[in-house]
Amino acid sequence: MHELSLARDIVEIASAAASGSDAKRVVTVRVRIGILAAVSSESLAFHFEEAARNTLLAGARLTVTAAPVVVRCPACGRDTELPDVKRFVCVVCGTPTGEVVSGRELEVESIEIS
Hints:
Elements: H1 2-19, E1 26-34, H2 41-52, E2 61-67, E3 70-72, E4 79-81, E5 99-102, E6 106-113
Parallel strand pairs: 1-2
Antiparallel strand pairs: 1-6, 3-4, 3-5
Helix pairs in contact: 1-2
């Protein structure tokens, strides 16, 4: 159920940005969510619609892009994208790693206004 609070935060961020641009309304909000963020895109979209009601974002479309998990290898020092989040090993040299560089984020990438 944390998607409701995330949706409210997204609406707040986008509303502040739109207000600063004298926008009449927000058409689209694009967010990037890491695979490890444990966020349901469907639930977020549902709650976004509710949170956007009676704001500049009413009727806006929420577009979600999944961010891959990238880890840093302690042996070779490379950052690599994991093909499978069940095995945290460097895809270059096979060394186990737990240093996550990205994959947990939730970012508002852009908003489209009119």
